[in-house]
Each structure stands twice: as C-alpha cells, then as structure tokens.
Write a structure and sequence with these properties.
This protein has 9 helices and 10 strands. It is an alpha/beta fold and 280 residues long. Strands 3-2-1-4-5-10-9-6-7-8 form a 10-stranded mixed β-sheet, with helices on both faces. The two termini are 20 Å apart.
Length: 280
C-alpha cells in the first residue's frame, strides 16, 4: 500500500477519521491524502435561515454565513495538517468543490484505501447510521473502505467474516495486502451455517490452506442459525474493540449473506471499525 485517502466534511470535522488515518499512515509509512469535501451545494445553514428574519439583508447575511463556513473549513484543515506534522506523516490536501459523492468516488479510483466516518452525511440534517451518503459510497467505491466510528478506539482484535463466497475471500485478501501491520492482533474467522449443515467451514481445506499463509495464528468459529442474528449476537459478546472485515457491499449480485444488509446491521448496532471491500 502506498496511498490512503481520508475523507472529511470540513464543516463537521471528524477527529476519529483523522486519528485512524494518521495511525495507519504512520504504521505503514504511506502517503496520506486529506480529501476535504467542500461541496459547493453544501453549507452549514439552510436557505430558511436567510429569509426568516423580515427586513433582513439577504445578501449580507449570506456573506456573513459563508465567511463563517470558510473559517470553519480552514480550522479543520489546520487541525489535520498539524496532526500530520506532529506525527511525522507525509500528506497532501485535496479540496473537492463539486458534488461530494461523485468527487470521492473519483478519488477512490487512485487510492489503495479510503478512510471515512460512518456518520458522514454531507448535509446539515442528522441521519440514522448508516447514512445515505455512506451507503452510496460503499456500493460504488473503487478501493477498500475503512469505516470508522465516531470516537477513536484502538483495535484489539480482527474478526474476518467468511461465508465461502468469493466476495468474502476477496475482502480478506484485500485486508491482508492493504493492512499487513494489523496481523499482530488476535485473528478470528467467523462463519455462520444453517442448522441442518455440519460445522465444517465452507471449502474447509482450501480456506485453511489460504489462511495459513495469510493469517497463520487465526482461530475459526462456526455458528449455526441465521447470519444476521448470529453475527450481531456474537459481536455483542466481544469485550474488546474488534475490527470487522467483510465483503460484498455492492449493487447487483451479492454474497449469500454478506450483502449490504449485513454491513448496515453492523453499522446500526455497533460503533466498531469496519473494513469493507468487494470485487465488482
């Protein structure tokens, strides 16, 4: 891995995204790009804020609010730059001023990893997690996406979700290639099978052979039941802060159970970091 990008809303700067991005960039000694999504359609204020006061000067008030937004965005950039400099991380700034989602998807073509907060909306409205912006981003991103919680939590364990489908194996491959420094943590492969099937891993021999080369210390856990229920219940019992790796967040053909709804469930029920990659 040579280049990672961290996406920021300069009006709602994510300290968590900054902290995770700098940690990874420093561990891997890679170039970090801070992508500030200064979408020209997005402001901290609403049009209603400009017109609700009778007799007010519309243009003057808008100029005041725009200046305030510019100062807020500048402060966010300064915070990012200062943190990179203090950490000794090589970095670049990108200011993307067109439609935020389109700009970020284009940036992802030329990145090895994208880091973004799971709470990003790029609107002045609050939304439930997963937000529409994050769902659309994950569906069409051109590189793996590291979705981080609102607060920085040091990773203590890796949980690799595996269902035997190529998409889940692809996600594990991409994680191994992209973030090999994370292999220092405890690694668990988690699978769920129907009640009427054995507890053997799907493609048991091939998967264990593959994992022996990539994650030789991994342990395997196979549960029975419905994946959406069992995975959530299992993660609820975890005392530490696992990083969950999963695939198949994409439109069209998806894995049997690592589809968009699984990622959505994890973002809804937990505030955990997620590594999501899919092969289109």
């Amino acid at each position: 891995m040579k280049k990672i990008i961290a996406a920021f809303d300069g009006l709602r700067f994510s300290k968590s995204t900054k902290d995770y991005a700098i940690q990874i960039a420093k561990q891997r000694n890679v170039h970090l790009v801070g992508v500030f999504l200064d979408d020209f359609t997005y402001h901290s204020y609403k049009i209603y804020d400009l017109i609700r006061e009778e007799g007010g000067n519309f243009e003057h008030k808008q100029a005041v609010l725009d200046k305030k937004d510019s100062e807020t965005r500048a402060a966010a950039v300064e915070s990012f730059e200062k943190a990179c400099q203090e950490a000794g991380v090589e970095y670049t700034l990108h200011h993307d001023r067109n439609i935020a989602l389109q700009e970020l998807l284009h940036e992802s073509i030329y990145a090895d990893l994208l880091i973004v907060s799971g709470t990003e909306t790029l609107t002045h409205y609050n939304e439930d997690v997963p937000t529409r912006f994050i769902r659309d981003l994950l569906a069409d991103a051109h590189c793996p996406v590291f979705v981080v919680p609102h607060r920085f939590k040091p990773v203590t364990k890796l949980v690799l979700l595996y269902d035997g489908e190529p998409s889940s194996v692809h996600a594990i491959k991409m994680f191994s290639y992209t973030l090999p420094s994370f292999k220092q943590y405890e690694v668990e492969v988690l699978s769920v099978k129907p009640e009427n099937q054995s507890l053997h891993l799907p493609d048991n021999k091939l998967m264990r052979e593959f994992m022996k080369r990539h994650f030789p210390t991994a342990v395997f856990t196979v549960l029975k039941g419905q994946a959406e229920v069992e995975v959530v219940d299992y993660l609820k019992m975890q005392k530490d802060c696992p990083l969950v790796i999963l695939g198949a967040y994409q439109r069209g053909k998806v894995s049997r159970w690592f589809r968009a709804s699984m990622a959505d469930l994890l973002m809804t029920f937990f505030r955990l970091p997620l590594f999501i990659a899919h092969n289109k």
